[in-house]
Amino acid sequence: xxxxxxxxxxxxxxxxxxxxxxxxxxxxxxxxxxxxxxxxxxxxxxxxxxxxxxxxxxxxxxxxxxxxxxxxxxxxxxxxxxxxxxxxxxxxxxxxxxxxxxxxxxxxxxxxxxxxxxxxxxxxxxxxxxxxxxxxxxxxxxxxxxxxxxxxxxxxxxxxxxxxxxxxxxxxxxxxxxxxxxxxxxxxxxxxxxxxxxxxxxxxxxxxxxxxxxxxxxxxxxxxxxxxxxxxxxxxxxxxxxxxxxxxxxxxxxxxxxxxxxxxxxxxxxxxxxxxxxxxxxxxxxxxxxxxxxxxxxxxxxxxxxxxxxxxxxxxxxxxxxxxxxxxxxxxxxxxxxxxxxxxxxxxxxxxxxxxxxxxxxxxxxxxxxxxxxxxxxxxxxxxxxxxxxxxxxxxxxxxxxxxxxxxxxxxx
Length: 413
Prior knowledge:
By secondary structure, the protein is of the alpha/beta class. The chain has 2 domains: about 130 residues, Alpha-Beta Complex (Aspartate Aminotransferase, domain 1), CATH 3.90.1150; about 240 residues, Type I PLP-dependent aspartate aminotransferase-like (Major domain) (Aspartate Aminotransferase, domain 2, 3-Layer(aba) Sandwich). The protein contains 12 helices and 15 strands. The strands form 4 sheets. The protein has a 7-stranded mixed beta sheet, sandwiched between helices. A 4-stranded antiparallel beta sheet has the order 11-12-15-14. Strands 1-2 form a two-stranded antiparallel sheet. Strand 5, helix 5 and strand 6 form a beta-alpha-beta unit. The longest helix is centred in the first third of the chain and has 22 residues.
């Protein structure tokens, strides 16, 4: 069994955790500079009073459900709620996460040993990696990769091994087994429902991946941020079904997108008790937990019997349909997403016809769309060098404005 790595303390400062600083990859440094230039162009347009449609980040534009806001306002007025909390989350919130998993995902969790409240999905993912890997280890990560995942792997001192995931369980398990054998990785970091593609996998897929991971003594971490944001209305399959095949598994759940509260930073790591306990200990070095009113409001969001996420998912579905239909008519190649808030699209080749060899085509397309249309998208190269033929749109504005975006893009053909 892969041993958990205990928090590393400086002998002169026992509460200080030592975190390795990743080496800078020259290509990543170059990409970072190019993205900074993209932001600079955006800033200049705003300063000059020109319109900018920022579809580069899934930063929800919708308000949180009213019942959740009411609980937050009520909690803020109580003086006793402005004290320190606890790093792993108050019990009532951990109970609410367990309730959510039981009622929506058919997964049983012990709120005392299998739930640790975290400061959003990034916090949960990084701490899970921090206790599972050491400097020099390898981590298999799904490709295209949500950019925060390779970054978290690097911060943990490990190396990311891309895995081009297939939705077919047999094909996926065969490729994963080969990767695990070659890399000797003991952690597999996944993201389903996926960002950027909005793809889904079912329980059988998770059970097959669990079988492979168990055979190679690898722990599964799944980013489940879009678990409730499926367009069919049926919740996505939790990675914790992989435990049925003997795999150790933890899952990252966040309220940011489904409940339109990204600024609250409310998430949790759930699943394998040993990993959850190690993360809880790690967090006791790092923070005192979330602001109590946020925890109490999140409790209401997770424990209500009313499906308050479905209306939000429906809005994203309608918005993405506008983008999907419009861009397809303009010759873009894409698959309609099944969940989430993004559209992963392959742009027409003529948009990057003048790009010099060695330069990023997707970055050039993103720059053109910003300069000529005021539309900000995320270049595909951010998700991995193999994805330079794509860009990602985040559906964070109204259907009417998205129709205008498609119209402006069409004028560039």
